[in-house]
Amino acid sequence: MEIDRIDGRSPNQLRPLACSRGILNRAHGSASWSQGDTKVLAAVYGPKAGTKKNENPERACIEVIWKPKTGQSGKQEKEYEMILKRTLQSICILTINPNTTTSIIIQVVQDDGSLLPCAINAACAALVDAGIPLKHLAVSICCCLASSGYVILDPTKQEEEGMKAFAYLVFPNSIKLILPEGSSHAQGERMEDGIVTSVTHGAMSVEDYFHCLDRGRAATAKLSDFLRRNLQPQVLADGSKAG
Amino acid sequence: MGLSNVVGDLSLEMEVDAFRRLFPLRFYERHLSESIRPDGRTLKSARDTSVALGAVASADGSALTKIGSTTMLAAAKMEVMTPSADAPDEGSIDCCFVAVEYYMPSICSPLVRPGRPAEIAPVISKQLYDTILSSGMIDLKELSLISGKAAWMVYLDIYCLDADGALFDAALLSAVAAFSHLRFPVVSLNDEGRLVMVPEEGNGDKSGKEVVNKEKRKLSLSSPPFSLTCALHKNYILADPTSEEEAVMETFVTVVLNSSGHLVSLYKPGGPVLTQTSVIQDCIALTRQRMKEVQEILDESISGMEID
């Protein structure tokens, strides 16, 4: 059962990805991430001294500020801030710099569907650019469920609004084994099968949700590769210094 | 290694309360290894739940819900509005016409003060609104009064009176209970052609106004949603955490199912524990069980109201 998407993509196909780092001078780390027409800018400042009140001083604190493209921050923005804060808290190693605050500012440049996943990816790239120690990277994807039961990935805004339900999923990035095969046995389910974050909208059956999970997990391999290539240290264009 | 020895020695001499405050994670892990929790519940059981309908007499529908110590008061009021031009036969439940607000006044928790509002309040407010819409609990056509000219708008306010964990579960239950208690107010057409509420005592006798909707009917709810929050810690799943458990275990999953078995929402906002598919299936199974319990409790209190 094939679904015709307006822009001619196949159901599992993602929009063209683009990521650039180090674009803001004053920020300690910054990144811009775009998936098709959705573009988000993330800036990281930190670690700065001191934590906010009510936060545990034995760990680093993460603060997220989400700036929408137009209008004031409302409940939607507060929800996104909380989801992003908890997601990033689970990937950062919080015990390394205790009693510090790292601020992540997200600015929405353009919203054409799949906004929260794009922001999570941008925030992750910005954290790497700032040199904040992370346990693993987070790759995020949006899966939509059409009323016919078909799952499509990375919808545009038009597709998202017409769908019965959608889920924003965040997975850890896939592990690239450098040890020879067989030396590390997978104990039961592997770490990269775990879900970091899942936020759903709209009612769907439980089997459909697990379908979305499988498709999303499969797509994270492509996203992880893109991220890995993009995060390689940039080599100077004019010859190598090593002579 | 030295520290754990010290803890081992100290724990023999220390009182339970002091140990609970100083080493909360160890306190909980000691209990979890015996499959029990400090308040005596098993890992999979939820706290005692009670629903009292009609708590606010001036509202059209209200409910006071308690899950353990967490207390929520929900009140729904209805007003007549003109529906939008492209949906003249439906009442409105889109962003302008159903207002679901969730408040956490300072009474509910020592962490909330007038100058420092709870961070979680707008998030829960938005989550409740999304869940009520996505579940399709309310049929929009029921909210229509006069096609094209007048339709109902529902204002739902939920106040947290005591915040002790599982806030979303209690808030959703109180919203569903308030909706099931909701009675449409009686309206009549006045001389200027506007719809006004008819007061309880007279029934438009004085000027013989025609009453538009005679029967005080209830709102019919199809497949109301019910939720369960589970805290995750290593391999343990704790259903219905208290606020102390939520603070110690930072990962939680909220599953919302409606009575036709559909997953309305699965909300896991990050957290140190990465959940595998098997854990999610366990949480969904726990939610199904909880849904049956809660539905019974709600049905009992509704039938209790109707007898009166």
Automatic annotation (TrEMBL), chain A:
Exoribonuclease phosphorolytic domain ranges (all copies): 13-133
InterPro entries on file: ExoRNase_PH_dom1 (IPR001247), ExoRNase_PH_dom2_sf (IPR036345), PNPase/RNase_PH_dom_sf (IPR027408), Ribosomal_Su5_D2-typ_SF (IPR020568), RNase_PH (IPR050080)
Organism the protein comes from: Punica granatum (Pomegranate)
Any GO BP annotation: rRNA catabolic process
SUPFAM superfamilies: Ribonuclease PH domain 2-like (SSF55666), Ribosomal protein S5 domain 2-like (SSF54211)
Example of a GO MF term: RNA binding
Keyword tRNA processing among record annotations: no
Pfam families the record matches: RNase_PH
Domain of life: Eukaryota
Family affiliation: Belongs to the RNase PH family.
Location relative to the cell: Nucleus, Nucleolus
The entry's keywords: Exonuclease, Exosome, Hydrolase, Nuclease, Nucleus, RNA-binding, rRNA processing
Any one GO CC term of the record: cytoplasmic exosome (RNase complex)
Protein name from the UniProt record: Exosome complex exonuclease RRP46 homolog
From TrEMBL, chain B:
UniProt cross-references to InterPro entries, sorted A to Z: ExoRNase_PH_dom1, ExoRNase_PH_dom2, ExoRNase_PH_dom2_sf, Exosome_comp_Rrp42_subfam, PNPase/RNase_PH_dom_sf, Ribosomal_Su5_D2-typ_SF, Rrp43
Membrane-crossing residue ranges in chain numbering: none
Keyword set, alphabetical order: Cytoplasm, Exosome, Nucleus, RNA-binding, rRNA processing
One cellular component term from this protein's GO annotations in UniProt: nucleolus
Subcellular localization, as worded in the UniProt entry: Cytoplasm; Nucleus, Nucleolus
Molecular-function GO terms, alphabetical: mRNA 3'-UTR AU-rich region binding
Coiled-coil regions listed: none
Name the UniProt record assigns to this protein: Ribosomal RNA-processing protein 43
Record organism: Punica granatum (Pomegranate)
